[in-house]
Amino acid sequence: MAVKHLLILGGTAEARELARRVAITIPKKVRVTTSLAGRRAKAPALPGDVRIGGFGGIDGLVDYINENAVDLVIDATHPFSAIISDHANAAAEATGVPRLQLLRPLWQLPPTAEWIEVDDLTDAARDLPRFAKRVFLTTGVRGLEAFSGLDDIWFLVRLMDPPAEPPPLAQLELITGKPPYSFEDERAILADHNIDTLVTKNSGGDGTEAKVFAAAEAGVKIILIRRPPPEPGPVVETVDDAFAWIESQV
Q: Ramachandran region of residue 140, left (φ > 0), alpha (ψ -120 to 50) or beta?
C-alpha cells in the first residue's frame, strides 16, 4: 500500500496536535507535511516535514500539490485566515485532491457577558468611543491601524511576538504572551489595567477563551469580530473528527 502524503495548512494548536497524532499513530500509512505562513518569530517544533512561507496564490498551491504528490489537504489554519482557506479550496478543486477544513467551534459566551459582534476591525474602532476608555486589544498585529485615530482611548495590546514596528496608537502599553492563557491571569490583567472593554476576534478555541469569561465576570464590555464563513465542502470542529477523516481516506 502506497503511503499517502498529507498536507496540513497549519499555524494552530489543532494543526500541531493533528500532525503529532498522524506521525505517531499511522506513520506507515500517511506522511505529513505542515505548512506555516512564517509570521511567527520562531516556528514551533513539529513532527514530519515542515515548510514555511506562502505558496504564491492558488496557482502556486496547485503547483505544490502536483509537484509534491500531495494526496490529502487539511486546512487547519486560523479561523480568520480567509485568503489561504479560499486558496486551499480552489487548489483542491483544481487538482481533485480531497480537502477538509478543521474549524474550531465558536465560543459560547456566558449569559452574564455584555457583548456585541461586528464585521471587522474598522467597525470595532467606530463603536469604541461610545463607551470605552481603557481597551484590551487582542486582535493580532495585522490591522491595528484601524484604531490609530482614537487618541482619547488607552490600549493594552497583546501580541504573541514583539512587532517589527510600534503599533500606531497614541496611548498604549504592549505586552506579549502565547496561549493557553489561564482564567486567573486574564482576570488579573483586566483588574490591574482597569480595563473596561475587550476587543477580540471570535476565534474560538480553548487556549484563548479565558479572557472572554474573565471579561464577563468583571463586567467588561466585549466586542467580537465576526468570523468569516467556512469554505464550501466538508468541515469538522475537532482533531478527533479530522483524524477520522484521514483514516477514511487511506
A: left
Contact between 96 and 70 (Cβ < 8 Å): no
pLDDT mean for each 10 residues of the chain (250 residues) = 91 93 94 84 77 92 96 95 94 96 93 95 96 96 93 96 90 92 96 98 91 96 95 94 95
**Is 12 buried (19+), middle (13-18) or exposed (0-12) by CB count in 10 A?**
buried
pLDDT, residue 241, reads: 97
* Residue 15 CB-half CA count within 13 A: 28
Burial pattern 135-172, b for ≥16 Cβ within 10 A else e, equals bbbbbbeebbebbeebeebbbbbbbeeeeeeebebeeb
Spatial separation of the C-alpha atoms in residues 85 and 38, rounded to whole Å: 16
Q: What nine digits make up the cell of 119?
A: 464585521
- 153, amino acid identity: I
C-alpha cell of residue 109: 459566551
Instruction: List Cα–Cα distances, 148 to 132, 143, 145, 172, in angstroms.
Output: 15, 10, 5, 11
pTM of the model: 0.88
The percent of the chain in helix, strand and coil, each rounded to the nearest 5, is 35, 25, 45
Catalogue all structural domains in the chain, each as residue range(s) with its CATH number: 4-105+229-249 (3.40.50.720), 115-225 (3.40.50.720)
**Among candidates 93, 119, 108, which has minimal Cα distance to 231?**
93
